[in-house]
User: Which sequence fits this backbone?
């Protein structure tokens, strides 16, 4: 019963209050009819194509009585943002370090109605480039299988350009506690910085049945080790002494 004038805008609020960490789907349907109750004339209303039939309501006299707009809505809950202590990955510049990072996912829905098609084994896709979304499956030995996508997100494109090629990550272990329902994922993170830096990233885990979890990660690269010591011996007062040394670039 909402009246809408010509070229007038109508805001339709959608409220999402999930009680479980699973995906919810709904449809927002808008039905428009003329205010005077008349129909829109349409000569071949009996021969409407399938796409048009799903978006109009046809009157008995052959005219178009109403027009439908249907918008699918998908609600994906996100775990509450708690003040988590970031996992710290520290390494000296021009060196390489590997660090195990363990995260716990609470509230994962494991009932069959929220599950995708179950698979027989647990696999990890490690053939994709670093820092892109990767897929992992976790099975508890029964018929339910949970699939996850994970990636590292950065606060800005500048930080991403600095860390993107220096950080690698893959899943090495996954398990679910049958009593508490908590899923534990253990990642192996490789950090090989080329210069001192201190940047933050966010490990984002998504469940294909719905739900997003975020965990902070802090990358710290300290000063590199001294490669060599250059000694310059004076040949006399007010006289120059010269020492030559070579610098080799690892790129062109």
Assistant:
């Amino acid at each position: 019963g909402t009246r809408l004038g010509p070229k007038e805008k109508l805001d339709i609020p959608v409220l999402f209050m999930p009680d479980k960490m699973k995906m919810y789907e709904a449809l927002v349907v808008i039905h428009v009819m003329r205010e005077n109750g008349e129909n829109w004339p349409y000569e071949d209303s009996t021969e409407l194509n399938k796409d048009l039939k799903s978006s109009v309501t046809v009157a008995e006299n052959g005219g178009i009585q109403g027009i439908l707009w249907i918008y699918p809505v998908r609600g994906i809950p996100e775990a509450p943002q708690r003040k988590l202590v970031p996992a710290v990955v520290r390494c000296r510049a021009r060196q390489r370090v590997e660090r195990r990072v363990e995260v716990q996912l609470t509230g994962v829905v494991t009932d069959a109605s929220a599950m995708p098609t179950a698979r027989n084994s647990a696999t990890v896709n490690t053939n994709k480039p670093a820092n892109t979304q990767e897929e992992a499956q976790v099975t508890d030995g029964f018929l339910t299988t949970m699939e996850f996508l994970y990636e590292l997100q950065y606060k800005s494109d500048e930080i991403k350009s600095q860390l993107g090629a220096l950080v690698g990550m893959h899943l090495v272990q996954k398990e679910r506690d049958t009593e508490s329902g908590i899923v534990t994922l253990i990642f192996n993170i490789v950090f090989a910085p080329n210069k001192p830096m201190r940047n933050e990233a966010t490990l984002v885990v998504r469940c294909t049945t719905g739900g997003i979890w975020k965990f902070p990660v802090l990358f710290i690269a300290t000063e590199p080790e001294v490669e060599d010591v250059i000694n310059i011996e004076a040949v006399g007062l007010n006289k120059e002494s010269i020492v030559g040394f070579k610098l080799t670039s690892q790129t062109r």
User: Anything to note?
Assistant: The radius of gyration is 30 Å. The chain is about 5% helix and 40% strand. The mean pLDDT is 81. The first strand starts at residue 24 and ends at 32.
